[in-house]
Amino acid sequence: MLKPYKELPRAVHILCLGTLINRAGTMLMPFLTLYLTRELGFGMKFASLGMGAIGAGSIIGSLTGGHLADRIGRRWVMLVSLFGAAVMLVLFGCLSSPYAIIISLVLFAALGDMYRPAASAMLGDLVAPDKRAYAFGLMYFAINLGFPVGTIFGGMLVEYWFQALFYIDALSACVYAVIILVFIRETLPCRGTLVAASGTGDSGQASTSRSIQDRSAMRHILANGPFLIFCLGTLLLSMVYMQSFSTLPVHMDSLSIDAEMYGSLISINGIMIVLVQIPLTAWMKRYNRVIFVCLSAVITGIGFGAMAWVTTVPFFALTIMIWTLGEIMIFPFSHAIVTDMAPVAYRARYLGVFTMCFSSGNMVGAPLGGYILASGGGASLWVGTFLFCMLASVLFLTIRRHIAS
Predict the structure, then answer these.
(1) What is the pLDDT of residues 184-201, one digit of tens each?
(2) Model pTM?
(3) What CATH number is given to the structural domain containing 102?
(4) Percentage helix, strand, coil, to 5, in the chain?
(5) What are the Cα distances from residue 165, in Å, to 248, 264, 300, 312?
(6) DSSP at 30
(7) Domains in the chain, number
(8) Which domain holds residue 163?
(9) 389, CA 20 to 30 Å: which among 190, 295, 303, 314?
C-alpha cells in the first residue's frame, strides 16, 4: 500500500515536507471572518467582501503563477510567492482601515496563490503519468496533516492573542521557501522541448516564439471543452468548500459554538484525511476515477446540505466527516486529470486556470454565501450548497468519456 508513495522522487517528498510545515502554520484563513467581525468590528457583509477580495487576488495569482512557471521556471515563482505572502501577512496584521484591508488581502492572495500552479506543475514534471495520483495524494496528505495543527492551535490563540496567527503564518511560509531554496532544483523542461511538445511547429524559432506560444496556449485552453467543463464543476465545488471557512464559523457562532470549538470541529477534516487518504487512494486507483469524481460531488453535497438541520456539536462533526469523505475522493484525481489533459508546454498554464477555479470559489462563493446567510439564514445556505454539488456531479458525468480511467 505504501510502496508507490515510497518510490516517488526525493524532491516530491521534500515538497510534501515543506507543505506540511507551511500548512501547520496556516492559521489565519480559518479565522479570517472572525478577525474581521469580532476583532475589528466589521459586519458579516464586509467580512464576506474580504473573503471575496482574497478570491480576486487568488485569480490574479493563479493565472500569473501559471504563466510565469511555464516561462521562467517553477522554483523561482514558488520562492517569490512564499516570501511575498509572508511580508503581506505581517503588514495585514497592522492594518485597521477597511480600504487598506481589502487592498492588502488582494495582494496577499495574489502573491500567495502564485505558488499553487507552479508547485502542481513541478509535481507533474517529476512524476510519470501513472504515478501522479499518488504524488498529488501525498501532497494532499501533507496539507491535511498540517491543517489540524493550524486550526486547533489557531482556535486557542484566537482567544488570547489574535495577532500571533499572522506571525506564525508568515514564519511557516518563510521556512518552506528556505527548504525550496536549499533542496529543490528547477524542473521546467528546456525551451526546445516545450515548443515541440506544444504542437505549434515553431521548434526552429524557439527564441522568438514566446508571444506566439502564449496565444497558442490560450487558444488551446479555450478550445478544450472537456477541460472547461471540468473546471466549471470544480468551481461549483470550490464555492461550496469555501463555506467551511467563510460562513460556517459565523453560522456556528450564532448557535453559541465558539471559535475554539469551531477550530476543533474543522480539524476533523484534516485528521480524517490523514487517516484515510493514503489507503483509500490506493484502493480507488484500481477503478475508473470518473466514478469517484462524480460520487465525491454527491457525498459532498449531502454533507454540506445536512447542516441545514444541524444545531449541535456532535451532528456538526458528523456532517464534516461526510463532506470530508467527498473531498478525499476527488482531490488526488482532479489535479492528475488536469495534468493529463494538458500538453507539456502548457502544463503550468492549465494548472493555473484550474487553480483559478478555487480562487473564483473564494471570490464568488464567500460573498454569495455571506449574503445568503445574512438574508435567508443557514437553512437556505446549506440547501443551496447541496444543489451546487448535484450540478457539479452532472457536469462531471457529461465529460466522463474524455477523462482517462
Answers:
(1) 999 887 654 444 444 444
(2) 0.72
(3) 1.20.1250.20
(4) 85, 0, 15
(5) 19, 16, 29, 27
(6) G
(7) 1
(8) 10-186+216-402
(9) 314
